[in-house]
Each structure stands twice: as structure tokens, then as C-alpha cells.
Automatic annotation (TrEMBL):
Gene: trpD
GO CC terms, sorted: cytosol
NCBIfam families reported in the protein's UniProt record: trpD
One Pfam family this sequence matches: Glycos_transf_3
GO MF annotation list: anthranilate phosphoribosyltransferase activity; magnesium ion binding
Top-level taxon: Bacteria
Record protein name field: Anthranilate phosphoribosyltransferase
Residues of the Glycosyl transferase family domain: 68-317
């Protein structure tokens, strides 16, 4: 199939047709490369992101999940090599009795992705994949390893590797959770992308979602400065800015949450769950507060920080991790 000219913005129908053909292997590799690079060069529109996510969702291996399940994840690609903030946040929020359908992968642009760090903590990824639905239902958390749920991307891997730069497919993972979550906290790697990404998410049927980016280009809520926030509810988008001091937390230098390899990050995550006070803890408290707002577990950022801190300090999040590992 001949792909449309990517130099002009695509309509929803044209974009869906194009991505359906790409995902179904109906296009020449060179044509796909040229199409994806040109889209990235001019910057993808909300319509194109929504269309691509719709087609990916239609081809993913879905799982059953509680109606109130949520996810917290980022697009990656921020180059910060930080500790695993969304993974720690997932554990803390799950310890607050919010079912957590964590969708993730191994490291791409960082030294340790969610899968790498969870594996270093003792989670058997193969068993976690097999028992995901049961774990989510009975323990309240599960990890859904992205390659197991998006087989249509397999044939594109060599093409994407050859391109060697970000394409639209790097933006789609958070929007294509196999548990079909209706509530989600998503981080994007540039504040300039928040509005476009929020518009795409608003068209994908979320009950409530929060799109965030630290002003330094962090795909999380930043503990170092202000973050741009887009709250999506009922198809409407409200924009705001949040800084750590707005919710009673201190600012920390970005280097204070620098990560390392999987074992380094796993050790830091375990220390956080054991109650260690640190910049990492504050970053996780801030992001957990955002997720708890999305889940409507709390009504304010301050209450979210307080509930997340309680889940850590009472040992609930650490106990949950231990239970998860023991019951694979």
C-alpha cells in the first residue's frame, strides 16, 4: 500500500488507514522509514497520535482488569537517566488500594527500565506475564511487559532501530495499556508536547487522565522545579502548573535522583520503600499524589502526598512488593 504524503497533516481516517497498513505489514520498509521520519521532523499532530494509538489498541493482546485500575508511566526519551520514579509510584499507589496495571518495558534511553528494575528486585517477568490478570485481581498490582502485548510492533523493530531516532511509536506505549485502563498518569519528555498529547488522549475515551512534563524535559512530575500539567476529564482539558513547594515538598537538584543500572535502581527503590528520606522519596510522593488525584482517591495534592507518605511509612508499599514477588 502507498502511504499518504506525511509532509501535510493527515486526517483521522487517512492516519488510521496508514497506521493500520504499517502495523499489518502491508508497506515497504523504506516507505515506512521515510513516512515515520517525515512525521517526526514536522512534529506529529494530536490526530495522528490518536489514530496510531487506536490502531495499536486494536491489535494488542488485551487483559481483564478491575474497572478502577489505573497506570502510571512515561513515554521515556527524556535522557535524564533518573531512578525509576513511575515504578516506585506504581507500588505506592497500589498500596493505597488502587489496582495498578503497570505497563512497561526494558530500558531504551535509560540504564534501567521498569522491567529491568523489577527483575532485579526479584520479580520473575515470565511468571508475572502469565499471572498478570490474577495478580492484579488478588494482590492489586501487575506488570504487563509491553512486547508480550504488542506483537504487531515486532516486525517494525529493525526498521525503528535503523531509523535511530524518536518516531511516533515512542509516544504510543502509555496510550496502549493492555488492561484498557480508563484512568492514567502519563509523563511526556517535553513540556511542548503536553498540549498535543493531551488532545490525543482526550479523544481516546479516558474517564480521567493527567499528562505531565517537568520544565527540564522530564517525563514525570519534577521534584526540581515546575511541571506542566494537563488534566483530562469528560473530554475536556484543563491546564495548570505545579511545583514541589506548592504541595509542601522541597525542591531538589535533578542530580539527586540520578539512577544507574538495574541493581542500583532496585536498591534505591527498596530503600525508599523502607522509609529512607530522600529526593527520590519526594519525587515519588509528588507523582503518587498526581496518580491518586486521577484515581479520585484524594481531592487535593496535599492529601495525595500525605496518603502516599503513609503508605510508605506504615510499610504497606514494601509489604506489597514482597507479596507480589512471593506470589508469582
Amino acid at each position: 500500500m502507498m502511504l499518504p504524503d506525511p509532509r501535510t497533516n493527515l486526517s483521522l481516517d487517512d492516519a488510521k488507514t496508514a497506521f493500520a497498513a504499517i502495523l499489518d505489514g502491508k508497506c515497504d520498509a523504506d516507505e515506512i522509514k521515510a513516512f515515520l521520519v517525515e512525521l517526526a521532523e514536522r512534529t506529529e499532530t494530536a490526530t495522528e497520535i490518536m489514530a496510531a494509538a487506536t490502531e495499536m489498541r486494536a491489535r494488542m493482546v488485551a487483559v481483564e482488569a478491575p474497572a478502577n485500575a489505573i497506570d502510571v508511566c512515561g513515554t521515556g526519551g527524556d535522557g535524564s537517566h533518573s531512578l525509576n520514579i513511575s515504578t516506585a509510584t506504581a507500588l505506592v499507589v497500589a498500596a493505597c488500594d488502587i489496582p495498578m496495571a503497570k505497563h512497561g518495558n526494558r530500558a531504551a534511553s535509560s540504564k534501567s527500565g521498569a522491567a529491568d528494575t523489577l527483575e532485579a528486585l526479584g520479580l520473575d517477568l515470565a511468571k508475572a506475564a502469565t499471572n498478570g490478570e490474577e495478580s492484579l485481581r488478588e494482590i492489586g498490582i501487575a506488570f504487563f511487559f509491553a512486547p508480550n502485548h504488542h506483537p504487531a510492533l515486532g516486525s517494525l523493530a529493525p526498521i525503528r532501530k535503523e531509523i535511530g531516532r524518536r518516531t511516533i511509536f515512542n509516544l504510543l506505549g502509555p496510550l496502549c495499556n493492555p488492561a484498557k485502563v480508563k484512568r492514567q498518569l502519563i509523563g511526556v519528555a517535553s513540556p511542548d508536547l503536553v498540549e498535543t498529547y493531551a488532545q490525543a488522549a482526550a479523544g481516546l475515551g479516558y474517564e480521567k487522565a493527567m499528562i505531565v512534563s517537568g520544565e527540564e524535559g522530564l517525563d514525570e512530575l519534577s521534584i526540581s522545579g515546575p511541571s506542566k500539567v494537563a488534566m483530562i476529564e469528560g473530554g475536556q482539558i484543563a491546564y495548570s502548573v505545579i511545583a514541589p513547594e506548592d504541595v509542601g515538598l522541597k525542591r531538589h537538584d535533578a542530580n539527586a535522583i540520578k539512577g544507574g543500572n538495574a541493581h542500583f535502581n532496585a536498591a534505591a527503590l527498596r530503600q525508599l520503600l523502607l522509609g529512607e528520606k530522600s529526593a527520590y522519596r519526594d519525587a515519588v510522593l509528588l507523582n503518587s499524589a498526581g496518580a491518586l488525584l486521577v484515581a479520585e482517591e484524594v481531592q487535593s495534592w496535599e492529601d495525595g502526598v500525605e496518603e502516599a507518605a503513609e503508605a510508605i511509612d506504615k510499610g504497606l508499599a514494601n509489604a506489597l512488593l514482597n507479596c507480589w514477588i512471593a506470589n508469582q
